[in-house]
Amino acid sequence: MRAAVQFLWPWAGLAAAFLLAPVVFSSPTALTMESVMGIMIIFALSYNMLLGQTGLLSFGHAVYYGLGGFVAIHAMNAVIHDRLAVPVVVIPLVGGLAGLGFGILFGLVSTRRAGLVFSMISLGLGELVSSSSFILRGFFGGEEGVTTNRAKLAPLLGLKFGPQIQVYGLVAVCCFLCIAAMYALTRTPFGRISNAVRDNPERVQYIGYSARRIRLIAFSLSAFFAGVAGGLAAINFEIMNAQQLGAQQSGVVLLMTYIGGVDTFVGPILGAIIVTFLQINLSDLTSAWQLYFGLMFIAVVSFAPGGVAGLLFRHWEAARSGAWHRLAPAYAMVAPGLVAALIGVVMLIELGNRRLTDEGSPMTMFGVAIDPSSIAPWATALGLFAVGAAATRLLWPKVADAWALVDKGLQARGRA
Asked: Which pLDDT value is given to residue 404?
Protein backbone atom coordinates (compact mmCIF):
# COMPACT_ATOMS: atom_id res chain seq x y z
CA MET A 1 0.00 0.00 0.00
CA ARG A 2 2.79 2.40 0.94
CA ALA A 3 4.66 1.63 -2.27
CA ALA A 4 1.52 2.33 -4.32
CA VAL A 5 1.05 5.68 -2.59
CA GLN A 6 4.69 6.62 -3.18
CA PHE A 7 4.28 5.76 -6.86
CA LEU A 8 0.96 7.57 -7.36
CA TRP A 9 1.47 10.83 -5.46
CA PRO A 10 3.87 12.40 -8.00
CA TRP A 11 1.38 11.69 -10.79
CA ALA A 12 -1.48 13.07 -8.73
CA GLY A 13 0.62 16.16 -8.05
CA LEU A 14 1.38 16.54 -11.76
CA ALA A 15 -2.31 16.26 -12.66
CA ALA A 16 -3.18 18.79 -9.96
CA ALA A 17 -0.55 21.19 -11.33
CA PHE A 18 -2.06 20.95 -14.82
CA LEU A 19 -5.55 21.57 -13.41
CA LEU A 20 -4.61 24.46 -11.12
CA ALA A 21 -2.27 26.33 -13.47
CA PRO A 22 -5.04 27.99 -15.57
CA VAL A 23 -7.01 28.76 -12.41
CA VAL A 24 -4.16 30.47 -10.59
CA PHE A 25 -2.71 32.11 -13.71
CA SER A 26 -5.73 32.81 -15.88
CA SER A 27 -4.75 35.82 -17.99
CA PRO A 28 -4.56 35.33 -21.79
CA THR A 29 -0.78 35.78 -21.70
CA ALA A 30 -0.44 33.25 -18.89
CA LEU A 31 -2.61 30.69 -20.71
CA THR A 32 -0.49 31.05 -23.83
CA MET A 33 2.70 30.65 -21.80
CA GLU A 34 1.33 27.58 -20.02
CA SER A 35 0.42 26.02 -23.37
CA VAL A 36 3.91 26.67 -24.72
CA MET A 37 5.42 25.21 -21.55
CA GLY A 38 3.45 21.99 -22.04
CA ILE A 39 4.62 21.72 -25.65
CA MET A 40 8.24 22.38 -24.70
CA ILE A 41 8.09 19.81 -21.88
CA ILE A 42 7.23 17.11 -24.43
CA PHE A 43 9.94 18.39 -26.78
CA ALA A 44 12.63 18.48 -24.06
CA LEU A 45 11.73 15.03 -22.72
CA SER A 46 11.88 13.62 -26.24
CA TYR A 47 15.36 15.10 -26.62
CA ASN A 48 16.47 13.59 -23.33
CA MET A 49 15.43 10.16 -24.61
CA LEU A 50 18.42 10.58 -26.90
CA LEU A 51 20.86 12.48 -24.70
CA GLY A 52 20.14 11.35 -21.17
CA GLN A 53 18.85 7.83 -21.81
CA THR A 54 20.85 6.67 -24.85
CA GLY A 55 23.85 9.02 -24.83
CA LEU A 56 23.23 10.55 -28.27
CA LEU A 57 23.99 14.28 -28.50
CA SER A 58 21.89 15.64 -31.37
CA PHE A 59 22.28 19.09 -32.91
CA GLY A 60 19.25 18.73 -35.16
CA HIS A 61 16.37 17.52 -33.01
CA ALA A 62 14.18 20.43 -34.10
CA VAL A 63 13.91 18.74 -37.51
CA TYR A 64 11.37 16.25 -36.14
CA TYR A 65 9.54 18.89 -34.12
CA GLY A 66 9.30 21.13 -37.18
CA LEU A 67 8.47 18.45 -39.75
CA GLY A 68 5.83 17.02 -37.43
CA GLY A 69 4.35 20.50 -37.13
CA PHE A 70 4.39 21.11 -40.89
CA VAL A 71 2.72 17.78 -41.66
CA ALA A 72 0.16 18.48 -38.93
CA ILE A 73 -0.66 21.95 -40.24
CA HIS A 74 -1.02 20.65 -43.82
CA ALA A 75 -3.29 17.91 -42.47
CA MET A 76 -5.42 20.55 -40.74
CA ASN A 77 -5.71 22.56 -43.95
CA ALA A 78 -6.61 19.42 -45.93
CA VAL A 79 -9.31 18.53 -43.41
CA ILE A 80 -10.71 22.06 -43.61
CA HIS A 81 -10.59 22.08 -47.43
CA ASP A 82 -12.31 18.70 -47.79
CA ARG A 83 -14.75 19.37 -44.92
CA LEU A 84 -13.84 16.13 -43.16
CA ALA A 85 -15.22 15.37 -39.70
CA VAL A 86 -11.78 15.14 -38.07
CA PRO A 87 -11.41 16.86 -34.67
CA VAL A 88 -8.36 18.78 -33.53
CA VAL A 89 -7.40 16.11 -31.00
CA VAL A 90 -6.24 13.83 -33.82
CA ILE A 91 -3.68 16.35 -35.12
CA PRO A 92 -0.96 15.76 -32.46
CA LEU A 93 -0.98 12.07 -33.42
CA VAL A 94 -0.55 13.05 -37.08
CA GLY A 95 2.46 15.14 -36.09
CA GLY A 96 3.83 12.26 -34.03
CA LEU A 97 3.49 9.76 -36.89
CA ALA A 98 5.22 12.23 -39.22
CA GLY A 99 8.05 12.62 -36.72
CA LEU A 100 8.28 8.84 -36.41
CA GLY A 101 8.49 8.40 -40.18
CA PHE A 102 11.22 10.99 -40.60
CA GLY A 103 12.96 9.64 -37.50
CA ILE A 104 13.19 6.16 -39.01
CA LEU A 105 14.35 7.58 -42.35
CA PHE A 106 17.07 9.82 -40.93
CA GLY A 107 17.86 7.42 -38.11
CA LEU A 108 18.91 4.71 -40.56
CA VAL A 109 21.69 7.08 -41.62
CA SER A 110 22.64 8.79 -38.38
CA THR A 111 22.52 5.97 -35.80
CA ARG A 112 25.16 3.79 -37.47
CA ARG A 113 27.68 5.43 -35.17
CA ALA A 114 27.44 7.17 -31.82
CA GLY A 115 29.50 9.96 -30.29
CA LEU A 116 30.92 12.77 -32.39
CA VAL A 117 29.99 11.09 -35.69
CA PHE A 118 26.31 10.99 -34.73
CA SER A 119 26.40 14.61 -33.56
CA MET A 120 27.94 15.82 -36.83
CA ILE A 121 25.47 13.82 -38.94
CA SER A 122 22.56 15.25 -36.94
CA LEU A 123 23.94 18.75 -37.48
CA GLY A 124 24.27 18.10 -41.21
CA LEU A 125 20.74 16.72 -41.49
CA GLY A 126 19.40 19.69 -39.57
CA GLU A 127 21.09 22.14 -41.92
CA LEU A 128 19.91 20.12 -44.93
CA VAL A 129 16.26 20.25 -43.88
CA SER A 130 16.50 23.88 -42.78
CA SER A 131 18.00 25.01 -46.09
CA SER A 132 15.48 22.96 -48.07
CA SER A 133 12.68 24.95 -46.42
CA PHE A 134 13.59 27.89 -48.67
CA ILE A 135 13.59 25.66 -51.76
CA LEU A 136 10.46 23.55 -51.21
CA ARG A 137 8.18 26.56 -50.81
CA GLY A 138 5.06 24.59 -51.64
CA PHE A 139 5.48 22.54 -48.46
CA PHE A 140 7.28 24.95 -46.12
CA GLY A 141 5.60 28.17 -47.29
CA GLY A 142 8.84 30.10 -47.77
CA GLU A 143 9.66 32.89 -45.32
CA GLU A 144 5.99 33.43 -44.41
CA GLY A 145 5.39 29.81 -43.44
CA VAL A 146 2.07 27.94 -43.49
CA THR A 147 -1.01 29.10 -41.58
CA THR A 148 -4.27 27.47 -40.56
CA ASN A 149 -7.40 28.03 -38.47
CA ARG A 150 -7.95 25.38 -35.81
CA ALA A 151 -11.50 26.59 -35.09
CA LYS A 152 -12.64 25.41 -38.54
CA LEU A 153 -12.05 21.75 -37.71
CA ALA A 154 -14.89 19.53 -36.50
CA PRO A 155 -15.85 20.08 -32.85
CA LEU A 156 -15.43 17.35 -30.26
CA LEU A 157 -18.02 17.19 -27.46
CA GLY A 158 -18.96 20.75 -28.30
CA LEU A 159 -15.35 21.98 -28.11
CA LYS A 160 -14.00 23.77 -31.20
CA PHE A 161 -10.65 24.62 -29.56
CA GLY A 162 -10.86 28.24 -30.60
CA PRO A 163 -10.45 29.74 -27.09
CA GLN A 164 -6.95 29.44 -25.63
CA ILE A 165 -8.23 27.69 -22.49
CA GLN A 166 -9.47 24.79 -24.63
CA VAL A 167 -6.12 24.58 -26.41
CA TYR A 168 -4.40 24.53 -23.03
CA GLY A 169 -6.63 21.62 -21.99
CA LEU A 170 -5.59 19.66 -25.08
CA VAL A 171 -1.91 20.45 -24.49
CA ALA A 172 -2.18 19.48 -20.81
CA VAL A 173 -3.79 16.10 -21.58
CA CYS A 174 -1.24 15.32 -24.31
CA CYS A 175 1.62 16.46 -22.08
CA PHE A 176 0.48 14.28 -19.18
CA LEU A 177 0.09 11.23 -21.44
CA CYS A 178 3.47 11.80 -23.11
CA ILE A 179 5.22 12.25 -19.76
CA ALA A 180 3.67 9.01 -18.52
CA ALA A 181 4.58 7.15 -21.72
CA MET A 182 8.19 8.36 -21.75
CA TYR A 183 8.60 7.58 -18.06
CA ALA A 184 7.17 4.11 -18.60
CA LEU A 185 9.72 3.55 -21.38
CA THR A 186 12.55 4.26 -18.93
CA ARG A 187 11.27 1.46 -16.67
CA THR A 188 11.08 -1.18 -19.41
CA PRO A 189 13.87 -3.59 -20.41
CA PHE A 190 14.32 -1.44 -23.52
CA GLY A 191 14.93 1.60 -21.33
CA ARG A 192 17.53 -0.32 -19.32
CA ILE A 193 19.33 -1.57 -22.41
CA SER A 194 19.31 1.98 -23.80
CA ASN A 195 21.17 3.06 -20.66
CA ALA A 196 23.60 0.21 -21.23
CA VAL A 197 24.21 1.40 -24.80
CA ARG A 198 24.91 4.85 -23.40
CA ASP A 199 27.39 3.55 -20.82
CA ASN A 200 29.09 0.64 -22.58
CA PRO A 201 27.99 -0.20 -26.15
CA GLU A 202 30.76 -2.79 -26.56
CA ARG A 203 29.42 -4.76 -23.60
CA VAL A 204 25.92 -4.61 -25.11
CA GLN A 205 27.25 -6.05 -28.37
CA TYR A 206 29.07 -8.75 -26.42
CA ILE A 207 25.90 -10.00 -24.70
CA GLY A 208 24.09 -10.30 -28.03
CA TYR A 209 22.20 -7.02 -28.55
CA SER A 210 22.62 -4.72 -31.53
CA ALA A 211 23.65 -1.30 -30.24
CA ARG A 212 22.78 0.27 -33.59
CA ARG A 213 19.26 -1.19 -33.54
CA ILE A 214 18.68 0.07 -30.01
CA ARG A 215 19.92 3.53 -31.00
CA LEU A 216 17.59 3.49 -34.03
CA ILE A 217 14.55 2.52 -31.94
CA ALA A 218 15.33 5.17 -29.32
CA PHE A 219 15.93 7.75 -32.05
CA SER A 220 12.63 6.93 -33.76
CA LEU A 221 10.62 7.05 -30.53
CA SER A 222 12.26 10.34 -29.65
CA ALA A 223 11.30 11.72 -33.07
CA PHE A 224 7.71 10.53 -32.53
CA PHE A 225 7.31 12.54 -29.32
CA ALA A 226 9.06 15.54 -30.89
CA GLY A 227 6.50 15.30 -33.71
CA VAL A 228 3.66 15.27 -31.17
CA ALA A 229 5.09 18.48 -29.72
CA GLY A 230 5.28 19.92 -33.24
CA GLY A 231 1.66 18.99 -33.90
CA LEU A 232 0.59 20.74 -30.70
CA ALA A 233 2.65 23.78 -31.71
CA ALA A 234 0.82 23.89 -35.05
CA ILE A 235 -2.50 23.89 -33.18
CA ASN A 236 -1.40 26.46 -30.61
CA PHE A 237 0.30 28.98 -32.92
CA GLU A 238 -1.73 28.22 -36.08
CA ILE A 239 1.45 28.83 -38.08
CA MET A 240 4.65 26.92 -38.85
CA ASN A 241 7.74 28.45 -40.41
CA ALA A 242 11.35 27.53 -41.12
CA GLN A 243 12.60 28.85 -37.78
CA GLN A 244 10.83 26.03 -35.97
CA LEU A 245 13.02 23.35 -37.54
CA GLY A 246 16.30 25.28 -37.66
CA ALA A 247 19.46 25.31 -35.58
CA GLN A 248 18.11 27.90 -33.14
CA GLN A 249 15.21 25.67 -32.11
CA SER A 250 17.59 22.72 -31.74
CA GLY A 251 19.78 24.92 -29.54
CA VAL A 252 16.81 25.89 -27.39
CA VAL A 253 15.89 22.29 -26.60
CA LEU A 254 19.54 21.56 -25.82
CA LEU A 255 19.54 24.49 -23.39
CA MET A 256 16.33 23.30 -21.76
CA THR A 257 17.64 19.79 -21.23
CA TYR A 258 21.05 20.77 -19.89
CA ILE A 259 19.78 23.57 -17.66
CA GLY A 260 17.14 21.26 -16.17
CA GLY A 261 19.50 18.30 -15.90
CA VAL A 262 20.10 15.33 -18.19
CA ASP A 263 20.64 12.81 -15.38
CA THR A 264 17.08 12.84 -14.03
CA PHE A 265 13.70 12.39 -15.67
CA VAL A 266 12.29 15.60 -14.20
CA GLY A 267 15.29 17.66 -15.30
CA PRO A 268 14.04 18.44 -18.83
CA ILE A 269 10.61 19.27 -17.40
CA LEU A 270 12.12 21.90 -15.09
CA GLY A 271 14.39 23.14 -17.87
CA ALA A 272 11.48 23.57 -20.28
CA ILE A 273 9.48 25.52 -17.69
CA ILE A 274 12.41 27.79 -16.75
CA VAL A 275 13.60 28.51 -20.28
CA THR A 276 10.08 29.10 -21.65
CA PHE A 277 9.27 31.46 -18.80
CA LEU A 278 12.48 33.41 -19.37
CA GLN A 279 12.04 33.44 -23.15
CA ILE A 280 8.61 35.02 -22.89
CA ASN A 281 9.29 37.41 -20.02
CA LEU A 282 12.98 38.24 -20.37
CA SER A 283 12.61 39.13 -24.04
CA ASP A 284 10.18 41.88 -22.99
CA LEU A 285 12.78 43.38 -20.65
CA THR A 286 15.95 43.33 -22.76
CA SER A 287 17.02 42.70 -26.34
CA ALA A 288 20.12 40.91 -25.01
CA TRP A 289 18.08 38.08 -23.50
CA GLN A 290 19.81 35.40 -25.60
CA LEU A 291 23.15 36.40 -24.10
CA TYR A 292 21.77 35.66 -20.64
CA PHE A 293 20.74 32.20 -21.83
CA GLY A 294 24.26 31.57 -23.04
CA LEU A 295 25.74 32.65 -19.72
CA MET A 296 23.22 30.51 -17.83
CA PHE A 297 24.13 27.49 -19.95
CA ILE A 298 27.86 28.03 -19.35
CA ALA A 299 27.29 28.42 -15.61
CA VAL A 300 25.20 25.24 -15.36
CA VAL A 301 27.64 23.13 -17.39
CA SER A 302 30.62 24.50 -15.43
CA PHE A 303 29.32 24.56 -11.87
CA ALA A 304 26.17 22.41 -11.76
CA PRO A 305 26.55 19.48 -14.19
CA GLY A 306 23.44 17.90 -12.72
CA GLY A 307 21.37 20.93 -13.71
CA VAL A 308 18.63 22.56 -11.67
CA ALA A 309 17.11 19.17 -10.85
CA GLY A 310 20.45 17.92 -9.54
CA LEU A 311 20.80 20.97 -7.29
CA LEU A 312 17.26 20.57 -5.96
CA PHE A 313 17.66 16.85 -5.24
CA ARG A 314 21.00 17.43 -3.55
CA HIS A 315 19.61 20.14 -1.28
CA TRP A 316 16.52 18.05 -0.58
CA GLU A 317 18.70 15.19 0.65
CA ALA A 318 20.67 17.61 2.80
CA ALA A 319 17.47 19.02 4.30
CA ARG A 320 16.06 15.55 4.98
CA SER A 321 19.24 14.55 6.78
CA GLY A 322 19.05 17.63 9.01
CA ALA A 323 22.31 19.04 7.64
CA TRP A 324 20.92 22.35 6.41
CA HIS A 325 22.40 24.13 9.43
CA ARG A 326 25.86 23.40 8.00
CA LEU A 327 25.05 24.94 4.62
CA ALA A 328 23.08 28.04 5.65
CA PRO A 329 25.99 29.95 7.28
CA ALA A 330 28.28 29.27 4.31
CA TYR A 331 25.62 30.39 1.84
CA ALA A 332 24.97 33.53 3.89
CA MET A 333 28.67 34.42 3.70
CA VAL A 334 28.89 33.93 -0.07
CA ALA A 335 25.53 35.47 -1.05
CA PRO A 336 26.41 39.21 -0.85
CA GLY A 337 29.48 38.87 -3.05
CA LEU A 338 27.66 36.64 -5.52
CA VAL A 339 24.73 39.05 -5.78
CA ALA A 340 27.11 41.99 -6.29
CA ALA A 341 28.94 40.13 -9.06
CA LEU A 342 25.66 39.24 -10.79
CA ILE A 343 24.45 42.85 -10.62
CA GLY A 344 27.76 43.94 -12.10
CA VAL A 345 27.42 41.45 -14.97
CA VAL A 346 23.85 42.58 -15.71
CA MET A 347 24.92 46.23 -15.69
CA LEU A 348 27.84 45.57 -18.04
CA ILE A 349 25.63 43.65 -20.47
CA GLU A 350 22.86 46.23 -20.50
CA LEU A 351 25.24 49.19 -20.72
CA GLY A 352 27.09 47.59 -23.61
CA ASN A 353 23.85 46.62 -25.34
CA ARG A 354 22.41 50.14 -25.01
CA ARG A 355 25.69 51.69 -26.13
CA LEU A 356 25.85 49.54 -29.27
CA THR A 357 22.18 49.43 -30.28
CA ASP A 358 20.70 52.76 -29.16
CA GLU A 359 23.76 55.01 -29.53
CA GLY A 360 24.13 55.46 -25.80
CA SER A 361 20.66 56.85 -25.10
CA PRO A 362 19.73 57.17 -21.38
CA MET A 363 18.22 54.13 -19.69
CA THR A 364 16.67 53.07 -16.40
CA MET A 365 18.14 50.14 -14.47
CA PHE A 366 17.08 48.99 -11.01
CA GLY A 367 14.91 52.11 -10.83
CA VAL A 368 17.87 54.46 -11.41
CA ALA A 369 18.36 56.67 -14.48
CA ILE A 370 21.71 55.86 -16.12
CA ASP A 371 23.65 57.51 -18.94
CA PRO A 372 25.64 54.78 -20.78
CA SER A 373 27.91 57.40 -22.33
CA SER A 374 29.32 58.50 -18.95
CA ILE A 375 32.13 56.76 -17.11
CA ALA A 376 30.38 56.49 -13.72
CA PRO A 377 27.97 53.57 -14.47
CA TRP A 378 30.74 51.62 -16.19
CA ALA A 379 33.06 52.09 -13.23
CA THR A 380 30.27 51.08 -10.85
CA ALA A 381 29.49 47.93 -12.85
CA LEU A 382 33.15 46.93 -13.08
CA GLY A 383 33.64 47.62 -9.39
CA LEU A 384 30.64 45.54 -8.36
CA PHE A 385 31.73 42.67 -10.55
CA ALA A 386 35.37 42.77 -9.45
CA VAL A 387 34.65 43.07 -5.73
CA GLY A 388 31.80 40.54 -5.84
CA ALA A 389 33.79 37.99 -7.84
CA ALA A 390 36.82 38.37 -5.54
CA ALA A 391 34.68 37.96 -2.42
CA THR A 392 32.91 34.92 -3.88
CA ARG A 393 36.20 33.31 -4.85
CA LEU A 394 37.64 33.98 -1.40
CA LEU A 395 34.66 32.61 0.52
CA TRP A 396 33.58 29.76 -1.77
CA PRO A 397 35.85 27.22 0.01
CA LYS A 398 33.53 27.65 3.00
CA VAL A 399 30.67 26.32 0.88
CA ALA A 400 32.84 23.48 -0.42
CA ASP A 401 33.85 22.52 3.12
CA ALA A 402 30.23 22.60 4.29
CA TRP A 403 29.18 20.32 1.44
CA ALA A 404 32.06 17.96 2.19
CA LEU A 405 30.73 17.55 5.73
CA VAL A 406 27.18 17.09 4.46
CA ASP A 407 28.24 14.46 1.92
CA LYS A 408 30.26 12.66 4.57
CA GLY A 409 27.20 12.56 6.82
CA LEU A 410 24.98 11.30 3.98
CA GLN A 411 27.45 8.52 3.18
CA ALA A 412 27.63 7.48 6.83
CA ARG A 413 23.84 7.51 7.01
CA GLY A 414 23.65 5.37 3.87
CA ARG A 415 26.05 2.78 5.28
CA ALA A 416 24.05 2.68 8.51
From this structure: 85
318 closest CA partner among 390, 411, 398, 256: 411
DSSP 276-344: HHHHHHHHHH-TTHHHHHHHHHHHHHHH-TTHHHHHHHHHHHHHHTT-HHHHHHHHHHHHHHHHHHHHH
DSSP three-state, residue 362: coil
Last residue of a domain, one of 241, 274, 306: 306
For helices 91-110 and 62-82, angle between their N-to-C axes, nearest 10 degrees: 140
Tell me, yes or no, whether 329 and 211 share the same domain: no
- Residues 251 and 350 reside in one and the same domain: no
Band of pLDDT at residue 414, cut at 50, 70 and 90: low
pLDDT of residue 206: 83
pTM for the complete prediction?
0.90
Domain co-membership, 287 together with 187:
yes
Coil, strand, or helix at residue 142?
Answer: coil
- Strands 363-365 vs 368-370: parallel, antiparallel or unpaired: antiparallel
- Which tens digits make up the pLDDT trace of 183-196? 999 999 999 999 99
Averaged confidence pLDDT in the chain: 88
